[in-house]
Design a protein that fits this description.
By secondary structure, this protein is α/β, with parallel strands linked by helices. About 50% of the residues lie in helices and about 15% in strands. Strands 3, 4, 5, 6, 7 and 8 form a 6-stranded mixed beta sheet that branches. About 30% of the residues are buried.
Length: about 400
């Protein structure tokens, strides 16, 4: 039944009239949800029946992105438990992971009061430790398979970014860095390569994490884009023989922190003239001019500029078409917002495994979205970066 339904949806989505398609899909989705909720509750909507197991409890809004466009859905809610449409099942991994992490904290007695209230509102307060454990194992298998998959081909650009969450450790609450690795392959597609937790300032951590990516097949890395984490530059050069690009956006913030508040607008305007140059040589020359002009009144800013020029301008050695994407970690901004939105719900994680479970599930879904999106970089421009200059065009049906 599921295969027939999905085949019908795919067939309908190929038609030209997108408005009609969306109306048909919305109608079909509503009928599917009615049937599924009736099976869950034991009775039809509005019907009085001794067989009813649970009452409906209104609706919640959810957008459904299809090839025919976005469709606004109203998902039925239940007074006890929860319901999620089967046709949206592929996107449930992150939601399952969030529920599992919350329940794990709850059953082990390490959750916050807000999480306790959330568990009760979900109708999941009666779950045992063994039930939660089975749920966690189910999610962990899929997430771990994704995070340990083999990597093939060349990956010229690698972005690394950290976000920080709270976790319980030895009876204390500590801050833990969550590292996300994203790269672009020689076909111009972005993928999430890995997730790890650890001390973001330790060289041993970066060496171990990057080596784990290399062991899975990551190669051809030319540029690693990240913040100025201690030890990362040395680890990237040792493992991949790659150049380190210090995030330009974060460097600007650090630089402006050395300037008096009233002068920051003027200093920012001077610094931006460096990045407006057409070539790396011109940018390096302008860097020296700006640094000398600022050095007298802001000596600390001058010292920072002397020490960081090569790292901040590294991206200018690569094709100009890529400069916007590789000058900073901003391409991961949306990813980090999603991670923060979900981790804020948990508040304090019970352990590191729970962090990987939730963030890994989110990255799995993000990767699925990128897989069907347009290329992040063109084949022609990437051919100038990779060791294989052959441009591979997609097959064209005859």
């Amino acid at each position: 039944m599921t295969d027939e339904r999905m085949a019908l949806i795919e067939l309908v989505e190929k038609q030209a009239d997108c408005d009609l398609v969306r109306e048909m899909l919305a109608f079909a989705a509503e009928r599917i949800m009615d049937v599924e909720v009736e099976a869950r509750t034991g009775a039809a909507k509005g019907a009085r029946s001794p067989l009813r197991e649970v009452q409906r409890n209104g609706y919640r809004d959810r957008n459904w992105d299809t090839r025919a466009g976005r469709i606004a859905l109203e998902l039925p809610k239940l007074r006890k438990g929860s319901y999620f449409p089967s046709f949206l099942e592929p996107r449930r991994t992150a939601e399952k992971a969030l529920v599992a992490v919350i329940q794990e904290a709850y059953v082990h007695g390490v959750s916050t009061r807000s999480v306790d209230d959330l568990v009760k509102a979900m109708g999941a307060g009666g779950m045992s430790k063994s039930q939660v454990s089975r749920l966690c194992v189910e999610i962990d298998e899929r997430v771990n398979a994704f995070l340990s998959r083999p990597l093939e081909g060349a990956w010229p650009y690698l972005w690394l970014d950290a976000t920080y969450v709270k976790v319980r450790e030895g009876g204390r609450i500590v801050s833990r860095a969550v590292i996300i690795a994203v790269a672009v392959n020689e076909d111009g597609k972005r993928e999430v390569l890995g997730v790890a937790t650890g001390p973001s300032e330790a060289e041993t951590f970066w060496t171990e994490f990057l080596r784990s990516l290399a062991d899975r097949g990551l190669r051809g890395v030319k540029l690693v884009i990240a913040d100025d984490h201690k030890g990362l530059r040395a680890a990237a050069r040792r493992i991949f023989d790659a150049t380190h690009q210090r995030c330009r956006i974060h460097w600007m913030r650090n630089a402006l922190a050395h300037a008096p508040a009233k002068q920051r607008a003027a200093v920012a305007a001077m610094l931006k003239t460096i990045f407006a140059q057409e070539t790396k040589a011109d940018a390096e020359q302008q860097w020296g001019i700006v640094a000398d002009a600022l050095r007298e009144k802001q000596p600390r800013l001058g010292t920072l500029m002397d020490a960081s020029r090569d790292d901040v301008l590294a991206y200018m050695s690569f094709p100009r078409e890529h400069w916007t994407q590789i000058a900073s970690t901003n391409p991961l901004e949306r990813v980090n917002r999603e991670v923060k939105r979900r981790t804020d719900v948990v508040g304090i994680f019970p352990n590191d495994d729970a962090i990987i479970r939730l963030v890994g599930a989110l990255m799995l879904e993000t990767n699925d979205e990128w897989a069907v999106a347009r290329r992040y970089m063109s084949l022609e421009t990437l051919a100038r970066v990779t060791d294989n200059p052959t441009v591979r065009l997609p097959a064209v049906a005859s």
